[in-house]
Each structure stands twice: as C-alpha cells, then as structure tokens.
Design goal:
Blueprint: E1 6-11, H1 17-30, E2 36-39, H2 45-55, H3 64-88, E3 93-96, H4 99-109, H5 114-125, E4 132-137, H6 140-158, H7 170-186, E5 191-195, H8 200-220
Parallel strand pairs: 1-3, 1-4, 2-3, 4-5
C-alpha cells in the first residue's frame, strides 16, 4: 500500500490555520478523500493533558527548556499513536502544528535557537517530515487580536484557559514571526507561505491549489 500524505498547517495563533485546516478537510471529503485530522499539542489522551499544562496561564513559570521537552513529549506520543499508523495505512494526515511551531515559538520566541529544536526533532521524529506545510502569515496585529478574542470567548463558554502564549509581549511574537519567515526561506520546497490579510475564501483557494498540485505530483512519482 502506498504511504499516506502528511500536511501540516503553521502560523501564529489567530492566523486562521485551524479554520483553513477544517475547510481543507471538508473539501477533501467532498472529493472522496477522508483525511485524518489532528493537532499539536494534543490529539491523544496524553497529548491533551500536556496541552492543558502548556497553554494554561497558571503555567506561567514554566522554564523554556521544560516547555520544549513537553512539546516533543506530546509529539512523540502523537507520532506513535496517530500520525505514523495513519500514514502507514495510506491515509492523508492534516495536522494543526508540528515541529515548525516548536522552532518558531521555542527556538525563536523563547530564544533557544533552532539547533536544539532540530536536534530534538532528529531524536524524537527521526526522518518524519511533512510532505507539505501551509504557513499562514497575515499581519502580526491581526493575528494577535483574533487569537486573544477567540481565547476570551472559549474561556467564557467552556471555562478553559489557553491564554498563556497570548499573554506574551509583542517582542516575543516578533521573534516567532521572524523565525517562521526563516523556516519558509530555508525549506522553500516544503513550505508554502500564504501572506497578507486575505479573506477566508482567498486563503482557502490558495490552500486548495497548493494541496491539489502536491498530491498530483506525489501520485506521479
């Protein structure tokens, strides 16, 4: 059986990546493809518990290296339990965040640098890399405003507090933004960057175009 196709969505919180992932999943389902949809941190019972610790504002004193280690603990479980079995079964996997997020947020935002993140990726993830990464980069201001508004709404509705990263200063997010741009330049063949304050439909059109082209290319190999 041919190996499946691994697609990740990246970007700042509030960039619209989760919305676009869901729209892509719907687009694929209408065409007879049934992707497996997951997220990081989270996506497994263990990962959801790690997610609570990582995103809860009460974890504000978490050391950057502890944060890095927890991100990869979540990733190791997700690969073993969800991602690798699905790819081995020939499924398309759509994942909300992967190692690029860790490199951007912990490597860039927390100023740990790319090297420890990439070394952890080598040890934990081995040769597993996304076949395609869709990086959404609307303006920094728009992303942060949407993320904070969304998290306040979720907290009011469910009581869940996932605001720890949104409470960071703008300088933190500038570093994350710059690191994402660095990743996109370095891995230009894998990463498709969709920039600007576009409408949801405009972004979806670019996402679908990129995915259709990559899947077509992969099927000819």
């Amino acid at each position: 059986m041919p190996r499946g196709f691994f697609i990740t969505f990246e970007g700042l919180d509030g960039s619209g990546k989760t919305t676009q992932l869901k729209r892509l999943a719907s687009w694929m389902q209408k065409r007879g493809m049934v992707p497996l949809v997951t997220r990081q941190p989270g996506g497994t019972a263990t990962g959801d518990r790690i997610r609570e610790l990582l995103l809860d504002s009460r974890s504000g004193s978490l050391a950057p290296l502890a944060e890095l280690a927890m991100m990869f603990a979540d990733r190791a479980q997700a690969i073993a339990e969800v991602i690798e079995p699905a790819l081995a079964a020939g499924k398309t996997v759509l994942c909300d965040r992967f190692t690029d997020s860790t490199e951007a947020y912990q490597g860039g935002g927390r100023e740990l640098g790319s090297l420890p993140v990439l070394e952890m990726h080598r040890v934990i993830c081995g040769s597993l890399q996304p076949d395609l990464t869709l990086l959404l980069l609307p303006s920094l201001e728009a992303s942060l405003e949407r993320a904070r508004r969304r998290n306040d709404r979720v907290a009011a509705q469910s009581g869940k507090d996932e605001n720890r990263f949104e409470s960071e200063k703008e300088a933190f997010y500038c570093r994350v933004w710059k690191k994402y741009r660095e990743i996109a330049r370095r891995d230009a063949e894998r990463v498709i960057c969709i920039e600007g304050d576009l409408t949801i439909d405009e972004v979806h059109e670019q996402v679908v175009e990129a995915v259709a082209m990559r899947i077509s290319e992969a099927s000819r190999v």
